[in-house]
Design a protein that fits this description.
Structural class: mainly alpha
Oligomer: single chain
Number of domains: 1
Strand content: under 5%
InterPro entries: Lmo0937-like (IPR043727)
Number of strands: 0
Organism: Pseudarthrobacter equi
Number of helices: 2
Protein name: Lmo0937 family membrane protein
Keywords: Membrane, Transmembrane, Transmembrane helix
Mean pLDDT: 78
């Protein structure tokens, strides 16, 4: 689930960067995507 969220955020970041929309908010999306990916890999694939 976290991986899909990170992918969606990264795609939104890329679209915003290419369309030059959002200014600094676009780079915040990239940082959030990276944090979610790191959290996903640190947490592992354990399921409750």
């Amino acid at each position: 689930m976290l991986l899909w969220i990170a992918i969606i955020i990264a795609v939104l970041w890329l679209l915003g960067l290419l369309a030059n929309i959002g200014g600094g908010l676009i780079h915040i999306l990239l940082v959030v995507a990276v944090v979610v990916l790191i959290f996903h890999f640190v947490r592992g694939r354990t399921r409750a």
